[in-house]
Amino acid sequence: MRRAAPTSDRGVPAPAAGALALALLLGACARDGGLQEASLPLAGADAVVQARDADPAKLQAAIAEATTASAAATAEWHAWRPSTLVDINNAFRRGQSVPSTPTIERLLARSRTFATASGGLLDPAIGGLVDLWGFHADRFPLTTPPPTKASIDAWLAARPRLEQVTLAGGKLTSSNPSVQLDFNSIVEGEGALALAATLRRHGVRDARLVLGGDQLALGDDGGRPWRVPLRDPYGGELGSVELADGEAFFTSGNYDKFRTSTSGGRWGHVLDPRTGMPARGAAATAVLSDDPVHADAASTALMVGGPAAFKRLVADLDIGCALMVTEENELLITRAMRARFTFARNPIPLGPDVDAGGDCRAPKLP
Questions:
Q1: Where residue 20 falls among pLDDT bands split at 50, 70, 90?
Q2: Does residue 21 surpass a pLDDT of 80?
Q3: Could you write out the DSSP letters of every residue in 287-332?
């Protein structure tokens, strides 16, 4: 049986995918003259917009506005470069209250919903653990030594939780100085949502937003749905899905952001707050939703929970369309996702498809 690149210290990692272009670019796509591409920094990474039959001036104006807005948002929520969030985390370490901002409050509100529904598996208070593992970084794979067992045990003993953060009078306070906020499990979804709104406001109606393996569709692709591939943790393409207007397809995996051990194994960047270690069991997850923030958070929560928690998390997070490929090349999938997803190959089913409702719409969350 073939095995996916593991999140634990076992096996040999698969090659990482190439990075997206860094420069802001506007030009014709090779496919045909009606499809233009624009690249911009978004949510701390690089996004590509493929726009169908858009007015070039309107697209350029939308990208310029979105680039400025993204830089301003990143200056608020970035977890390790100078930012409002870094200032907040430093205040928490000192046991001090600190002024909040509307952006941080919105991220907190959405994160509380996901933290509660996931039973704490998805908790932005674990930024200290992310930093401990060295994943507050821009280049991967990491080759520095991993954290010691003693340092992980110390973090587990302190066990920071989002519920220890309170907001009153416009100020944030943490009852636990070990709380370090990190919103990377939802900021790509937030960024995609904001970018989509900017494009629509400038009259760009038909476009596909690509943020690495995460994608959001606007309108259609010349009269047909936007086709979105899913990368296979074993290499190549696992399959694809067609997205309707406003639908998002977000994924999590140990593909690119990982730490290599001395034995050649791989520790993925998605961490389990129950153990202080990289998540185990899932090689890749994907969620289809009409809310990119929900899709972003849910795909990460499924990665943390692993195969044993798939059915529970699908219910608790109200995920209609989801799939998981395990490290043993097994498949867990909801019935609604099965109806939407076209497989290029067939992983081994791990039990019957999960009945999570009839469609891929997200729950009404804050």
A1: very low
A2: no
A3: EEES-HHHHHHHHHHHHHHHHHHHHHHHHHTT-SEEEEEETTSEEE
How far from 327 is each of 62, 270, 314, CA to CA, in Å? 41, 14, 19
- The CATH number given to 1-17+24-366 is 3.10.520.10
Q: What is the pLDDT of residue 263?
A: 66
Q: What is the CA radius of gyration of the chain?
A: 20
Instruction: Tell me the whole-structure pTM to 2 decimals.
Output: 0.90
> How far is residue 260 from each of residues 35, 271, 340, measured CA to CA in Å?
39, 15, 35
DSSP letter (8 states) at residue 142:
B
How far is 261 from 138, CA to CA, in rounded Å? 18
Mean pLDDT, residues 64-80 taken together? 96
Domain ranges for the chain:
1-17+24-366
Do the beta carbons of residue 47 and residue 211 sit within 8 Å?
A: yes
Per-residue pLDDT band for 292 (boundaries 50, 70, 90) equals very high
